[in-house]
Amino acid sequence: ADGARVPVVVIGTGYGGSVAALRLAQAGVDVHMIEMGMAWDTPGSDGKIFCNTTAPDYRSYWLRTKTKQPLSNFLGFPIDRNIPRYTGILDAEEFGGITVYQGRGVGGGSLVNGGMAVTPRRENFGAVLPSVNADEMYDVYYPRANAGLGVGTVDPAWFDTAACYQYARVGRKHAQRSGFPFVFVPDVYDWDYMAREAAGSVTKSALAGEILYGNNHGKKSLQQTYLARAKATGRVSISPLHRVTSVSPAGGGGYTVVMEQIDTGGGVTATKSVTADRVFFAAGSVGTSKLLVKLKATGALPNLNAEVGKGWGDNGNVMCGRANHMWDPTGPLQSSIPCAGIDNWAAGGAFAEVAPLPTGIETYASFYLSITRNPNRARFSWNAAASRVELDWQTSWKQPSIAMAKTIFDKINVKEGTIYRTDLFGGYKIWGDHLTYHPLGGAVLNKATDDLGRLHGHPGLYVIDGALIPGNTSVNPFVTITALAERNIEKIIAAGL
Ligand code: FAD
Fold first, then answer.
1. Is 261 helix (H, G, I), strand (E, B) or coil?
2. Residue 442 contacts by C-beta under 8 Å, 6 or more apart in sequence?
3. CA atoms within 13 A of residue 484's CA, in its CB half-sphere
4. pLDDT above 70: residue 475
5. What are residue 372's DSSP bridge partners?
6. Which atom of ligand 1 has the smallest separation from the CA of 482?
7. Mean pLDDT of 334-363
8. What pLDDT, on the 0 to 100 scale, is given for residue 1?
9. What is the pLDDT averaged over residues 463-467?
10. Are 356 and 332 in contact (CB under 8 A)?
């Protein structure tokens, strides 16, 4: 309630925030979580909570009047459509040189993402989080995160026969014919449920093209895992449709947290404040960075150090499609949950996921999301005149990512006698180099914070989300974000908060 005093406020309900809330509550601490997006627990007039990728409606995008689909075109035609402005689930946040996709709602990115739950190869960990003890991570915190998230892997025997993974088997065949290591990619989707979808005995989700705007079934988002357990403690409350705008030292100790309550059209209906002894920033890499950069620049948190806002990367995301021959159809039915990858990290700096194109028709296309070792890092800064935080990423900074992805796909194209698709991004573009799904950094561990995520200069303030990770995880990031949060909160609680 407005004016209340609480022990802990957690800003954001994604991976970092959910881990913090659960572990603090289990330690006997009352936690209040503040989330700018909706609760996503109530069906719409069609009986469904989430809308489908084939028919994005008001629920799809965060406060936009037109969809901004990652694949903007198909067979050369633009596919974006007008929608009512609404606090929808997926934010396509535009900065100068990049569009950053993020989940909005209770559960954060877990609501919209593909659920690919990948632990980095151990030999790559030193470059991911240089100050963190790898033994502890691989012995304790990665296993804890994988268990807490409900990670599993497709049954290889089922994979070999399932119609919905023909596209992935084509991806495997092409990878192996060019000599690249093929790997199964674990996921938090319930694989037994998917097998029953294929058998026709349950309501389809992955096999009905659901992903990106939420899955009505099958996917274990944070709502089903960490947040369910956190709520069951009785110590965690959540305020959806509340956006934190300020955190500053309070007169009698602790911090004043100011927030705006918004309606589903994005209008501000109330401004409230609470006082918290401790505040965890878990608003995601972009959300946390934007808040901290603004609060430092405007004098609300003057003692934050000069590292705040620095070290932001896109996890080297780049997309592309390849046109297959008629004898390599990828199938009209494609599971929206990817389960296959091509690992050329060591030799070429790229890990490519074989992604679906769930259009319902045969496309003869193979589609890939590559994670690459892109070295470029951007910085958030406060534009006082415009009262806004900006990011200095340049579109041309994706060139290293394209070169790394080409180490895989140029070779496959030569071997198969095939070419890249030019109809997926508009303007005959081959490379989807305008976006990222994996924002990381902006309040880097051991730089903007100490080695546990405690912000320098303001005791009682913590960062516990993707902002801690310096720009790249070599694979999809949420298992690493979760494992790091598990590590940090355990040590923070042990140190007496
Ligand atoms: P988030 O999960 O982003 O949570 C932050 C939360 O804070 C959000 O709910 C946000 O609404 C809220 N918030 C922000 N600002 C404020 C504020 N001022 N006040 C109140 N609340 C606020 N990763 C994988 O590992 N595997 C995948 O398969 C995968 N696929 C993806 C697909 C898509 C389309 C997208 C967008 C992302 C995908 N990701 C994937 C990335 C993954 O979802 C993110 O890395 C992860 O969610 C980040 O976790 P986080 O805890 O840092 O923050």
1. strand
2. 285, 286, 288, 289, 292, 293, 308, 309, 310, 311, 312, 380, 448, 467
3. 31
4. yes
5. 350
6. 51
7. 95
8. 67
9. 99
10. no
Report residues whose beta carbon is within 6 angstroms of any ligand 1 atom: 11-16, 34-37, 101-105, 108-109, 112-116, 212, 243-244, 282-285, 287, 291, 437-438, 465-466, 476-478, 481
- 112 neighbors 123 (Cβ within 8 angstroms): no
CA of 201 to the centre of ligand 1 (A): 32
- Rounded Cα gap, residues 484 and 128, in angstroms: 11
Q: Would the pLDDT of 2 be above 90?
A: no
Structure confidence at residue 427 as a pLDDT band (50, 70, 90): confident
Output the pLDDT for position 73: 87
Minimum CA distance residue for ligand 1 atom 9:
108
Centre of ligand 1 from the C-alpha of residue 27, in Å: 25
In angstroms, the Cα distances linking 208 to 195, 205, 216, 358 are 13, 5, 10, 8
- Tell me the ipTM for this assembly: 1.00
pTM: 0.98
- Separation CA 462–CA 155 (nearest Å): 40
Question: Which DSSP string do the residues of 288-318 spell out, in sequence order?
Answer: HHHHHHHHHHTTSSTT--TTTT--BB-TT-E
Rounded Cα distance, 64 and 398, in Å: 26
pLDDT at 471 over 80: yes
CA-CA distance, 229 to 219, in Å (whole number)? 16
For 93, the token pair is: 């946040």
